[in-house]
Amino acid sequence: TESPEAGIFPVGFAARVEVVVESSEPVAYEWLKDGEVIPAAGAAALTWDPLLWEDAGTYQVRVSNRVGVVTSPPFELTVFELVSGGTILFETRYSPFGVDVPVFLEDGVTLASGPGFLAQLYGGATEAALAALGAPVTLLSGTRAGYVSGGVRFLEDVPPRGTAAVQMRVWETMYASFEEAKAWGGRIGMSAILEVQAGGWGDPPAVLAGMPGFMIHPSGPVIIEQPYETWIGVGEPVGFRCGVELTPDVQLQWQFQPAGGGDWQDVPGATAATLQWPSSTLEQNETLYRLIATDQWGSTVSDAVALNVVPLVAMGDQEGVFVLRLLAGAGPELSIEFSSDLEDWVSIARTEATGTALEFQENPETRVAFRRRFYRARSVGTGEVASENIVGFIRLVLPPDLNLITVPLLPADPRVPAVFAGVPEGTVLYEYDPEAGYSINSREFDEWFDPGQRVEPGRGYYLLTPTGFAPDLTLAGDLPRGDLSCTLPAGWSIQGLPLPFEGVVDEDFFLPLDPLDMVAFWRPATWSLNVFVNWGIGWEGNPPTAHLGEGFWVYRSSPAEWHLRYDDPP
Q1: pLDDT tens figures, 23-61
Q2: Helices assigned H by DSSP within 39-153
Q3: Which of 37, 311, 495, 558 is 20–30 Å from 1 (CA)?
Q4: pTM for the whole thing?
Q5: CA separation (Å) from 187 to 116, 135, 301?
Q6: Does the pLDDT at position 470 exceed 90?
Q7: Interatomic CA distance for residues 375 and 384, integer angstroms
Q8: Do domains 227-306 and 314-393 have the same CATH topology?
Q9: Would the pLDDT of 477 be above 90?
Q10: Strand pairing partners for 118?
Q11: For the domain 314-393, what is the CATH code?
């Protein structure tokens, strides 16, 4: 008349289930676990003392008399461990307790199934404290598609019988976590947040009764390039940029957090991917900035990065004098053109061609306004480019102490004293060779230890400046063009982009990669390591983006040719 019901019991304690039978004849009992008869279990009640982990399973009881045999419906026995925190059962289809939380694909009809999707239960004392509870599990498939069987989960910050907020999140298995899938535009889904009373202290785990089903959908806006920490001098213009995949309904908003902490506040009118203002003050030092991108599916928050307003030490080329080598037949009237991006060029001066070379000096205001500056000559009469070379100036404002840099130009004089003119006493330049290790060149007593050392474009160097000084380094030289290929050795080596650009090292600059190759950055005073998993998954985390003039470590399992070519800009 009463069949045993599903039970959830703590391991190590006594447990009991019972069947109630009405019969005018004597009856016999036979209990089964996972379809197998349990020896010596011949009473109306089945007991364990103590209950063990291996006792979990599917049970039935078979009752018989001389008239016939009746078998009860199967029921589940779940075993869990009592801990100091509360407990919750991550089962999304549990009929005895009214749990039914299906996960659908975008059409709202088709049930999502494994192995294509992972699910994880999040919980905490409040909605703001939600954290992953245990490891993710694969959605079930077949007749149980759309559901999860994840066992008992523990809430470290919620005591037994305490109130907890819980939420289920689902994402594509190609991503390591829900957060990664959301950041990179994967398909995700999440339930409404449910309030439950946690189990524990002898009470069974809480169940997800009342949690509604939900659909998988595209994630919110995707940030493809994070902003990064900036170092500038007092009174200089400021700029942050965040790369976002823009769709018609994406809304952007920059926020700031004052130095020392406090609430995040909107920057008035800052609703574009770039945040700029003309001048900085010392009061802004160590202020944090971030971008929030929002669409119909939710919001994505960029990294929070600091603005550092510090005293600078001017280094490198501070004169802005350059020479354009003229092509045969150039002139007689020439236009000097300027570009900050090698795409849009404007005429800034006109002059007469009087020989094979033309000397010119930058406008001081241009030097302050643009971190990248390029110059070339054009014939006014024919409209053709008239200079053999394009001269570039790259201004790098670096954090104090140790930096990993590269020189993305061809200096007229590539020797260290010329490239790093004006560096303070105690500056050290480290160059790494995979076979010989580090070589060290330092500036002491107003001269370099090895004044003949030459800087190679595309090679990475550590630059160490005395504590407290932020290097304001201007690099000058011709723009590299043509074949820029090189050989990458096996093991670790320090590389750099041989061009004055920034971007993802493999997608934008074709860095050759094999599974488990690595790229590492030193920013500032901390390491950032990126692992290339394979060609199907790609990078573990964000793809590595090299900044302007930044060196980086590359680890390869075998040597490879890095094929790179840059032809004339428009």
Answers
A1: 888 899 999 999 999 998 999 999 998 889 899 999 999
A2: none
A3: 37
A4: 0.60
A5: 11, 19, 18
A6: no
A7: 15
A8: yes
A9: yes
A10: 138, 171
A11: 2.60.40
